[in-house]
Amino acid sequence: xxxxPSELLFGDLxxxxxxxxxxxxxxxxxxxxxxxxxxxxxxxxHFPVINPATEEVMTEAPMADAATVDRAxxxxxxxxxxxxxPMPGKERAKYxxxxxxxxxxxxxxxxxxxxxxxxxxxxxxxxxxxxxxAAHFAYYAGWADKLKYxxxxxxxxxxxxxxxxxxxxxPLLMAAWxxxxxxxxxxxxxxxxxxxxxxxxxxxxxIIQEADLPPGVVNIIHGMGQTGAAMVNHxxxxxxxxxxxxxVGKIIQRAIAGTKKKLTLELGGKGANIIFEDAALDQAVEGxxxxxxxxxxxxxxxxxxLLVEESVVDQVVMKxxxxxxxxxxxxxxxxxxxxxxxxxxAQLDKITELVQAGVDEGGTKHQPVCELPxxxxxxxxxxxxxxxxxxxxxxxxxxxxxxxxxxxxxAAEAVEKAxxxxxxxxxxxxxxxxxxxxxxxxxxxxGVVWGNTFNKFDPGSPFGGYKESGFGREGGRHGxxxxxxxxxx
Amino acid sequence: MLPSxxxxxxxxxxxxxxxxxxxxxxxxxxxxxxxxxxxxxLKLCIAMMDLTTLEGSDTPGKVEMLCQKARQPILTRxxxxxxxxxxxxxxxxxxxxxxxxxxxxxVAAVATYFPSGQxxxxxxxxxxxxTVDAGADEIDMVISRGDFLAxxxxxxxxxxxxxxxxCGEAHLKVILETGELQTLDKxxxxxxxxxxxxxxxxxxxxxxxxxAATLPVTLVMLEAIRDYYQRTGRMVGMKPAxxxxxxxxxxxxxxxxxxxxxxxxxxxxxxRFGASALLNDVLMQLETQRTGRYQSDxxxxxx
Lengths: 489, 303
Fold this sequence. Notes:
The complex is a heterodimer of chains A (about 500) and B (about 300).
Chain A: E1 34-36, E2 39-41, E3 47-51, E4 56-61, H1 66-84, H2 89-105, H3 107-118, H4 122-143, H5 147-150, E5 157-158, E6 161-165, H6 171-184, E7 188-192, H7 199-210, E8 218-220, H8 225-233, E9 239-243, H9 246-256, E10 262-266, E11 272-275, H10 281-292, E12 305-309, H11 313-325, H12 345-360, E13 364-366, E14 382-385, H13 392-395, E15 402-408, H14 411-419, E16 426-430, H15 434-443, E17 448-451, E18 470-471, E19 484-485
Parallel strand pairs in A: 6-7, 6-9, 7-8, 9-10, 11-12, 11-16, 12-15, 14-15, 16-17
Antiparallel strand pairs in A: 1-2, 3-4, 5-19, 10-18, 13-14
Chain B: H1 18-28, H2 35-47, E1 49-52, H3 60-71, E2 85-88, H4 93-99, E3 106-110, H5 121-133, E4 138-142, H6 145-149, H7 153-167, E5 171-175, H8 178-181, H9 184-196, E6 201-203, H10 215-232, E7 237-239, H11 247-260, E8 273-275, H12 278-291
Parallel strand pairs in B: 1-2, 1-8, 2-3, 3-4, 4-5, 5-6, 6-7
Helix pairs in contact in B: 1-10, 2-11, 2-12, 5-7, 9-10, 10-11
């Protein structure tokens, strides 16, 4: 075996055999239905739903038109007045606990479905997405009967009917983040999953029906942009919650201007992962990897900009290069896969275009040498050196496994560069000096600041952005606020 | 005594984030090792084993039994490698040497007044020389934890360099006794000092103190070896010892090596397990891969 002096060889001397999770027991319909007023109903104008790792059509989903949206909102309104608003909090809580428990019981099926439909590795859906989704329902179940304690001295009231539109990067988890607080606070819901990833939400509708939730409390409809627009524009929706791109977020905000609708937006990000020379460097490198390469970088709060103190940039780049070689890109259903499929052809094209732009602008592209599967939408983990604040790869949200490496000289410069973006969703700070973490966290304009870690979520921890990353928080006591009327607050 | 002009300056070892190390270990623990990968990994574990007996009650009979097992771990198949070495106390070295004659199994011996190391330097070096003269191929020494914890890094370094000298042709493994060092920062510093001083291998523990080898400690030591290799071009081996009782855990250690240091370290020349009960569990797992059934332990000879 040829190994250059001081070079490491991560080869095939002992290679992992395929370890596929079998999808044989996972069942879904050849044609998905809307879930309205407690019943599944077939729709029209079906569009194909694809497995991004194989490019095979898994099923098809209906496109809800304005009339379908109207029926869903009406069902939600009736359920709100008849069942949900009058129900005491502790009874609402029971339904939420039941849903949490059922998600746990069907965890394996949900995880496999999420990986097949969305492309993320089974290890991620099994260990992160599904457990967090169940935890979110369980957490907000606990708040349902304690709203007066959440806001002492105030009389919190639900808003009514919430229209919720969620993205394709964490389908089941985003559904949990939306539905759980809405229900806990006494609101009813019309939710639309993203067009590329309807399957786990469709499965969640089955769970909700099995949980015997009163009909119309949660309605799950499918569709594309027009369906979302119909929800946003519907006059009887009291509240819109949207997670997705900043561009669409702006469209929505314009659309509801002048109406009485409440709005929360969770939009894009270009998170800065800041590594000081006094960080625990090997562990910081692991934080970089977690920040940008897991879930294929399809994370709004991804650490997509690495800001590293100039005195250690060579060391960090070398460690990152080695670390990148042991990342396994491949079949999402293989338990040893680290990086799965990109969610869609469209997203793959966008990533490819931006990476090419990075090269054209003079950046140096770093990628591991590895085989990609013959079919499916796959992209190697990538990082750029030789780019600056002004490069496209440093400014635009790529939403893929692509990292821009930038340097700084002082903490003040790190703050300045980190904040020099229209986004403000997340940041990471790596240093062994505790006081620096606090001073950095105070100075960074990011809704979430992680200290010596990254991409850590908990239902009790409020999540959301500054600036063009949106407004409103999900998680924790703060996550109740968007769904309540506090009487003038 | 070192003249002040050549006083050893301890390395600028990095601090270690314990939470992140534990997370990395957990994540690497999710690697699924099946079928061909499992069989290959299990055989590698056998080839990497230092079969060990270090008891006050060791007798020539006990050592001979261990050596026979080392040469021929299992009768019913011929695709199982011999273990790397047998590890004994110094007085047992001639017994082991005779019992292993003609095989490729090495004789390793603990020396420097294992496990405590509480003796004068000259006494410790003397024991090393006598043990090498008796035929030991490898020496496992213990560092002076008292001196280390008191900040006498120069003394620790000096004692290791002297021991390397005293070993002559024999290889030296330096036992850090990580259970007594307690923090990962100290494990990293001790690893760096030992490698600076010329260790051929760094080893976690004597097995006489709890905790012995753990996955997080091992990962820290592997990362230290990697950084040292990057800086100097010299490879250093690693040996976790104590507490590795089953195949599943042993394979997790191999995953750490594979994903931290890569192919070059996946050989008995650069990685060893200090274990005794592990061998029969690995053999049982290999047989299960072959037959599809688990056999009871009466089918696997005692070592």
